[in-house]
Amino acid sequence: MTPARGRPRRTTPAEVTRAALELFAERGFEETTVDEIAAAVGLHRRSLFRYFDSKNDIVWGDFDWVLERLRGLLDEADPELPLIDAIGRAVVASNSYPPDAQPELRIRMTMITTVPSLQAHSMLRYAAWRRVIADYAARRLGTHHRDLVPLTLGHAALGASMAAFSAWVEDPDSDLDELLKRAYALLADGFRT
To answer: Of 50, 61, 78, 74, which Cα lies nearest the Cα of 18?
Structure first.
């Protein structure tokens, strides 16, 4: 499909992401070109880069929104809750998606957890996510986000979240909310159970 000449049609980042994820699921991430994604939404290649900086970024969608959502839920957390429980509840709530959004999320997470070039790119996203957790922990503890405990909590929270997402990707019948809750319960209990 060749984009129409003249002024490019208007689209949204969500439409670009949806079309790209469908192509990635059908053809594979590496096998899908930026030109094919642009054509699928009726854009020129250059216009596509107004929405996303790279093909890798398309998979992540609006990750800034994800971080803001998590940050907001942490800010609203009950200060009387144990720190790891507050983090766990905020992470579970921030990853609560309606059933109709889960197929797209499953494609996204399958790509993120299995495509080597996306795994390398993910390190930047994971660092930003861990920083949200570490900032919250540092505020609660009255310390700096680069101190050991906030850093450890950020890394541990990411590990628990990624384990839950990986299990969810592997088992289409599993429930993401339940997996996240179990992962954070294990973390809170120190893996004693």
So the answer is: 61
Please give the CATH topology (third level) of the domain spanning 62-188.
Answer: Tetracycline Repressor; domain 2 (1.10.357)
- pTM listed for this prediction: 0.87
Residue 147 gets the label, from left (phi > 0), alpha (psi -120 to 50) or beta, of beta
Please compute, for residue 141, the number of CA atoms within 13 A of its CA located in the half-sphere on the CB side.
19
First-last CA distance in the chain: 56
Instruction: Return the SS3 of 146.
Output: coil
Is pLDDT above 80 for 4? no
pLDDT level of residue 120 (50, 70, 90 thresholds): confident
Task: Check if CATH label 1.10.10.60 holds for domain 13-58.
Answer: yes
Is residue 165 a contact partner of residue 176, using CB atoms and an 8 Å limit?
yes
Tokens found for residue 94: 């921030």
